[in-house]
Structure formats: structure tokens, C-alpha cells
Records
---
Amino acid sequence: MTTTQSAITAPAAGTPAPRRRRNTGDLLVRYAFVLPAVLYMIAFFGYPIIKNVVMSFQAYDFSTFFNGKAPFVGLDNYAATFSDPIFLRALGNTALFTVGSIAGQFVLGMALALYFRRRFPLSGFLRSLLLLPWLLPMIVSAAVWRWILEQDNGALNAFLTGIGLIDDPIPWLTSSDTALIAVIMVNIWLGIPFNVVLLYSGLQSIPEELYEAGQLDGATGWKSFWHITLPMLRPVVSVVLLLGVIYTIKVLDLIIGLTGGGPANATQTLATRSYEMSFVEFDFGQGAALSNILILIALAFSLVYLRANARAAKNG
Amino acid sequence: MSSAPWSAPQHSAAVVPGGPRRPGRRDLLRAGLAVPPLAALAGCGSGGTSGDPNAIRIVDYYNTPADDVAINGTFSACAEELGLTFSRERVPGDQLIAKVLQMGSSRTMPDLLMLDNPNVQQVAESGALASLEDYGLTAEGLTPAVADLGRYDGTLYGIAPTVNTIALFYNVQLLEEAGVQPPTTWDALRSAAEAVTTEGRYGIAFSAVANYEGTWQFLPFMWSNGGEETDLSGEGVLGASQFWSDLVRDGLASRSVVNWKQGDVMDQFKAGHAAMVVNGPWNIAGLEADTPDLEWDVVTIPVPTAGGEPVAPLGGEVWTVPLTGDEDKQRKAAELLKAFVAPENQLFMAGERSTIPGDAEAARRFGEENPDLSTFVEQVATARSRTAKLGPDWPRTAKAIYTANQRVLVDDTDPAEAFDEAARTVS
């Protein structure tokens, strides 16, 4: 923005007389360009967030929609949220889900990105196949995975028993011990394309000379990965991880589609619980309180992201 | 990692080396696009009072072709007779309540609104519905429990032209081969299930999923065992939960019941993975279409001891007249509704949609004409409304019930412990 500004005002500097008029005109034009975006932000981001915050201090329920009455209840909704026995479980599940998903997506995504760095026949084609999970509507993926993970007739158990890895079918989605793991597995599958695409494009920008120089100094294989690839990739890695966290922490559709938060709340996260509160129990006040907590957590990570981004821009 | 994957490369463009972000044409376009919706926002709120005083707006969730044709045909005939016109909006089933809330807050309620019966009391409590008795509609002739579906605080707010319930479907061939009779008691159900359970096939399947369907399927077991929704930690409720739990623990029913909705349960039946299933008449059409060779029959849901009365929950949709502020329209909508729910229309819609007429006399006739559905007719006669006792509090209790059953079936929690907590959450 700053560069454009000076670029526009610079020619005007030599001619003092029309300067003022032209500047105000410029200013108006500039604001006119910014205005739609500002209005858009206020209407579609600012208003909902403020409304959500206000709602979390109100008894906002089913009848509110008809009679418009939403009495102010102070911190009651937050108190109810924190004393809800499912809250702690949902918080823990959210942490496990996020950490597990990100770790899996990142490691596998990095491995695949490195693999595709080498050019080989059909590598472009295979790389585009990797994007497939992205192209499928989430609800379709969830439905298909529900079949695959089915305990008695699912493909995964049939495969695992077939190759003799397990004797008894694993109750992937029907036991509270495995359901969260299964949901994380599916989410890793979904997240790999995102990681591969970003990491791969990051790898492209590392100059080949660095590796050649490294080779002369004896840095090959793992050494070159640790001392050349990873440091050069750091800005991209931090973005991938932070965006991953922000996207993963609020995943709702996948969990609703796979388990609905069950069995017995084993896959309940802050996002699913908030949805349940608002749209199943119609306690929109408490649902809003819960989602505000979620927003705060995501916001914390967003700030880290923005700072990292600014630093990367300065260095780059 | 899930939503808005498209936005990821965009955000990252700022840091991926070699890709400085340039405000492109798309950004300008997006900014420009923001304005029209705002203008549109300002336009709403004035209320959707359409010009034609004889045009009735209807909202329902009848989306399947069979339902749609039957409902539309009936409304067409009735509207023509009364000199009215109508327009129907079909909403996806699981989004109806959200839609109702939206319409409620924007004062755009339709003239006729269909509601799933467990929600009627909640909506009525909010003061959004007109009393039907004010317009001369009564519950006369309806099976008493069906009349209850549309009542709140003694006032009639809605009428269900047809209703449904659940019963036990069984695979005739499998039971015959095993030499067992269709079960009528819990003991008989267990031994029949034992007799037909083999590798790759369970004796019985039902839905214990973590939503209202799971509770709906549990109710016949709970009620016929003397359990009450007002006493969740009572013996009757615990016994029924234990019965389900034993079926799963002993391998007569799959552990997957905790994840199966009723459609999934029917799929198990079609695929031959379950010999008996708890299900409803709305799935019969699909069953016959997908597996025409499968020979099946239906009995009422088995009861704890011989001679006990099966008590099943009543399902079905209730038609209401929302308060729109247009008294004349409300009166006309009520007239249309009155014609729509006439017994001969009930018979027609019941036949087309495999449901049971709400009118007691029509139901009796329907049972005679449709022996296939006679079990459901019988079950409906003694069925109970889910909201008769708890009214608007039912949804909360229903959630407590399915949550407790999940704990029992998934974690082998003792029913007493799970339902004690359920009772606490609703108290």
C-alpha cells in the first residue's frame, strides 16, 4: 500500500497549484476503492462476531426467534459451559485431534513433497491425483469413510484381517477407544494435499546450487535435509503448521459425518459441541459462549501466524 | 484440515518465495460484489406480505417423489375446491427447524407449516402458532394419541393426517430355516436371534445412534417394560437398556448399532447381515425396490413378558397454522388444512406414502385394505405420543436417553450409572 501511495503522489509534487484539488480527489478515489471491502468486512465478519459475543451473554433460545426476547444473563452461559462435564472432554479431544491431525498431515505431506521433488515419469499426473481428497465434497468423503471403517463389513477391517495383521475386526467408529484415532486418520488423509501443495512449492524455490555446494562439503541425504532443506523451508513450514492448526481446530463437518460426536461423546470437540448446543439443543447463548472460546483459541494462533508472516515478508 | 481449502494457497501466497501478492482483478470484483447483498439486506424485514389474498404459502419437508406427489396432489384438489392457490417450499428434513427459526425471526412464517411432531410443543410454546379450534378444526375422530401430537397445554395447534411407528421386520426364510416363530416376547426375541446369528450375520439390528432416532427406537422397549420418560433412573428404563446391552454384548446385535441410523439398519436387513430389524413403514418402498426377492414380514415389537401390550412411539408430521398477522389468510389456511386432513384424503396419502391414517375409523379401514401394513395399524392404535408428558422438554430428555444408551452400549457402563446421570441432566 505504501509503495502505491508514493507512486501516485510523486508526479504531483512538481506542480503546486492543482496539488490540493487533485489530492482530495485522489483521496476520495482511494477511499472509494477501500469502501466496498470495508463494508464487506463489517457486514460479513464484524457483525457476526459482535452478534456472537453479545449472544453469549444472553438467554438466547428457541422462543427468542419468535418473540425477540433474549434477556441478559451475564456470565451464566460461560459458567454453564465450564461446568458442563462434556466441556473438558471436548477440550481434550480438540487438542488431541488437532495435534494428531497436524503431525500426521505434516510428516506425510513433507515425505510426499520430497518424493515428488524428483522428476520421474508420470510424477505430474500422480501429484495431481494426490489432490483428489480436496476435490471431493466433505460429506461424501465422510460417508465413504464410514463404510470403509465399518466394523463388520468395512473394507479396512477386511483388508487388515486378510493380510493377517489383526484377528478380530477393530471397532473403528464404535468404540470410544478407537473412534478418535479413526477420525484423526481420516482427517490426515484429507489434509495431506494441502501440506503437499504448499511444501512442494516451497521446495521448488530452494536454489539447486545450495545442494551442489552442500554436496561438495559432504552434506548429502539426511544431512542436506536438516541443514539445507529444513532451514530454507522454515517460513513455509510455519505457515503450513499454523494454517493447519487454525483449520483443524474448527473441523465440524467431518466429525458430524463420521460419528456425530459419538460414540458416547468420544469424538466430541469444541466445534461439534458448540454446534450441538446451538442447533440440537437450541441453546444459542451457550453455543455462542462455546464458539467464542473456540474463536479465542484460533485467534491466538492467527496472531502467531500474522507475526510469522510479517517477519517472513520482511526477511524475504 | 478441512474447510476452505481454496483459501489456503491464497493466504500462503504472501510467504511462498517468488509469489508476491498482487491485488488482482478478482479482489476488486469481490469488493464490488459486496454491495448488492447489503442493499438487499436493507430491503428485507418489511415482511413477505404477498399481494394475492388467496395464495397460501406452505412449508414442509416432503422431498421423496412418493411423498411429494401425494402431498401436492391432495393440496391441489383441496385448493381448487376452495378457490385458493398454493405454493409449496420443500426444505431438507434436518433443516426444517433452522428454517422455522429463521422465518420466525424475520416474520415470514408461511400460512401452513408442517412440523415433525416432537417439535410442535416447542414451537407452540413460543407463541408462533394459531389455535386450530378458533377456526373450527377439532381432533374429533382422531386416534387419541394422534390428537395428542398436535396439542400443547390443552389447545389444539396441529393435526397429523397420517402417522407412523416402528415394528419388527423379519426375514421369513431365515427364521423358517432356523425353525423359530416370529418372536413376541423378549425371551423369544433373544432365542430367535441366537438361532439365526451366524458368521457374517447378526440376529437383530436396531438403531442406537446418537440422535433422536436412537431414542425413538428405544422407546418401545422402554415403555413396554414400564419405563417412563419422567423417571429415567426407574427400573423399567434400566431393564430395557440392559436388554439392548445384552443383545450387543452377546454378539446377537452388532456393536455398530451405536452408529446406525434407521436407514443403515434397513440396509443391513437388505444385505442379509441382519435377520430381524426394528424399522418403520416409510422404508418399505425402498426394501421392495432394492430386494424384491427378499421375503419379509412384520410383527409388533416384542414385549418383556407374554400377554404384555406393545407400546410404540408415534411418528409423523403435524400440520399447523402459524400466526402471520394476516387474520384472513390464517382463516383460509385453516380451511385448506381442514379439507387436507379429511379422512378420505388421509386414506389416499396413507396408501401412497405407506403410513397410517390418523383418523381411527380411516385407520381401521386402511388396515383391512392393506394387510401388509396391518401390524403398523395395530401398533398405532396403542402407540404413544413422545411429547404427551414432557411437552417442550421432550427434546432434552430424548437427548439424555440416547446419550445414556451410547454409554451403556459403547463403554459397557452399567445402565444404572448411565441413566442416573441422564436423570440428573434433565432435572
---
Amino acid sequence: MRELRFDKTLYEGTQVDAALEVFGRYGTFERAEEADAWIVRIESGSKARERRLAGEIGNYALGLTMKSRRGASS
Amino acid sequence: MGEPLQGIPASLVAVDLREGAVELKVDPTLYPLDAVYGASFTFIDRCFVFLDRDGERIRVTLSAKDRTVGEDVLHALIGEFANELLACAWRAKITETNRATIEAVTMQAIGGAMGPPSLDELEDFDFSEEPFEDPLGIAQSWEDKYGKKGESAPADAKPKPTESDET
């Protein structure tokens, strides 16, 4: 299992959810919420696969957050 | 993540060779969040980028897509990221400084595209504004200042005094 911690000041929750939806078929996710972060635990067969899946989800959530914030500021 | 990278302060950068990852701690008072986002975006195609908070700082973790990369690759990666971060911060600063100019030029362009004012708009225009001050007489024509062409100016003709001359 691999854990990702998305800080609420850096990532938007809706965009993290959207990223998880896109990659949903590649693994199983467990979501939790802390005061300052969204926690995602990823399981996907092997460690290498989990590493890659976590990286892709992180990139996707970051890209969507940036796009969303840029749209909101302009 | 704990090992330092050669040539880079250990308090800023740490590397995890087993994970093929390197992290950089960024001071948000020097590099605004938009600059961090901008620099991160340019690395999304080459590695996995993850942002987190570490106290007051933002921790940027770059993980090579191929985990078996060496320290030299991670060193180059974080060096390039730092340079890109600086460039993004500088661009953000320039944009902020020139915001008023950019807005003025844009407004002029939009105003020009709207075409000349109509007669009704001219009729409503307020022409009662006071003329601008010209203490040095720069806006005066030559004739106003020295007399009309053809009129023989006296030999001792002097320019008409301006407000600044009187004071």
C-alpha cells in the first residue's frame, strides 16, 4: 500500500477526486480526510505499479488544480 | 528521504536513490505559489511531481519515472527545476509590476476597436475642463510668441513673457 497526502492549500479536493476517477480502474483507493489534507491510500498489485499509479495520480491532480486556479484567477 | 546531494545545501535538497526521487524545500516568501506551480508544470512530462507543506516551506518532490536513475540524473533534475522556479518567479514579478501598463494598453486597444465616438457622445462630452498649465509657454505657437509672419518685428523684439518669466 502507498499513501499520498494532498495538502488542502496546494491541491483542490474536487481535482483529487477527478484524478482518482480517471485512474480508478488501475487500482483500489481508500480515501480519508484530515484537517489540512486529503489522504489517499493506493493498492495496485505490485510496489512498482503502486509507485507509478501514485505518481500519475499526483501529476494529474496537480495539473487539474493548476488549470482550475488559473481559470479562477483570470 | 535523507541523503544530501553534492554541491547543494542539505537543508534545501535531499535525495532518495532507492525511490529515484529528490526533494527541494522552497521558501514561499521568495518563490510565490504560482511560480512553484509553473515550474512544476514544465516537469510533469519528465517525472512525477508532488507538492507538500513542510512547516512554512513548500516541499517539491520529483520522482523519476524510471526508478533506476543515478544521482547525477537527480542532481541535474533538481538543478533544472531550481532554475525554472527562479525564471517563473521573475516572470510573475514582471507581470505584477507591469500590470497597470498592460491594462492601460489593453483598454486603449479595446477603445480603438470600438471606433470613433458618435455625435451624441460628442454632444455629451464635457469640454469645460480647465486647460492644462503651460508655465514655460511650450504649447504656444511661434506666431503667438513672436508675432505673425510678414509683420516686421521690431529689432528689439523679445518673446512674450510666460508665467514662469513673471515669477
